[in-house]
Structures are given as structure tokens and as C-alpha cells.
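In this supplementary section we document a worked example of the pipeline. Step one takes a protein sequence of length 85 as its only input; no multiple sequence alignment statistics are reported here. Step two produces a three-dimensional model, which step three serialises into C-alpha cells for compact storage. The input and output of this example are shown verbatim.
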Amino acid sequence: MKLVRMYTTGVCPYCTMAKRLLQGRGVAAIEELRVDQNPALREAMMSSTGRRTVPQIYVGETYVGGFDDLAALDRAGRLETLLKD
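The serialised model returned by step three reads:
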């Protein structure tokens, strides 16, 4: 399974929902990058994604987007394929 990286904060309900969805699809570990604890990470997130809100999710090197994008990918049946090595 590919590495999942997610920019998050400690109080973000969409981050929690994204983690649950990914765990439900078999993702055992998510690399969380807490932008609320490190302002430099928020700057890096905004630079790489063009977005200010969390979560921002990468599966391997593929940028997925936020929770709504992740959920849409899952509903379309493409998330499990993306997660495979």
C-alpha cells in the first residue's frame, strides 16, 4: 500500500473523517503533518497545493485534495486502485 501523507490540525473534523475513510480502506499508517504545530508546514502545504484548508492529502506522489475530493474518489471506486502499490 502506498504511503499516505496528510496535512492536518488537531481540531479538524474533516481530517478525522478522512483518516477514518482511509483506515476503512486498509491504510494502516498515515503520515500526519500538523500545520497547527509548525507554521512552516502550512507554508509548504499552501505552496504545493495552492490551498489553505486542511486536510490536504497525498497518496504516494499523487495529490488527492481535501476530504471532499477523497470521498468523491472513493465513491467513484478509484481510491482503492490509487492506494495499491
